[in-house]
Amino acid sequence: MNKLVDFKFQYVDKSVYPQVIILLSELNKHSHETYEHSLDVYNLSAQLGEMLGLSKHKLCNLCTAAVLHDIGKLAIPTYILESPNMTISQRNYVKYTHVKETIRYLIQGGFPQEVIDIASHHHEKVNGSGYPKGLRGNKVSFEDQILIVADHTSAILMTRSYKSGKTTKECATILDNMAKNNEVDKKITDCMVSILNTRDMLWQNPNNHSMSL
Ligand SMILES: [Fe+2]
Ligand SMILES: [Fe+2]
Fold first, then answer.
1. Is the model's pLDDT at 199 over the cut of 90?
2. Does domain 3-150 have CATH number 1.10.10.10?
């Protein structure tokens, strides 16, 4: 079944729903693995946002930003995006171009400024070591940080054309280090680890296979 049809996007506002579906359909055709990653980041952001008690309005801004955070990759040729042997210059090109292009797609689609801000900060870090702006401290909002953690978690766990996925345990160690380095709030990484552990526990118990997190 087509995941896009199956996906309900509970936290995407009706006013932007059609634009989200059109952009995601394009992304699915352009790079299926980036599309899968975007759905994954939406799911993880929704679970984190709910667990951390965000209001419905904040959840909608966060989750809309989450599902479109890498939409700028539409502007990058698929052979570069999915290359197992990306050169350093290609890597830098993808790194900076996709954030710039994400902002352009979101402005063009008439998305709220809050959504554009969260999506454009998904590679920033609280300690200032992120990109493209090297924002610091409270310039990286709580919602920004939720998206940063969800994006990292998905990237760490997923197997892509150029790398294999890591285990939940390995992922938890990387997330702990992110919090120790003051890249994101520890409350968010702890929450992410507990969501992953619960998911693993349910998958290990065959009686719970019908449950979905
Ligand atoms: Fe990205
Ligand atoms: Fe991403």
1. no
2. no
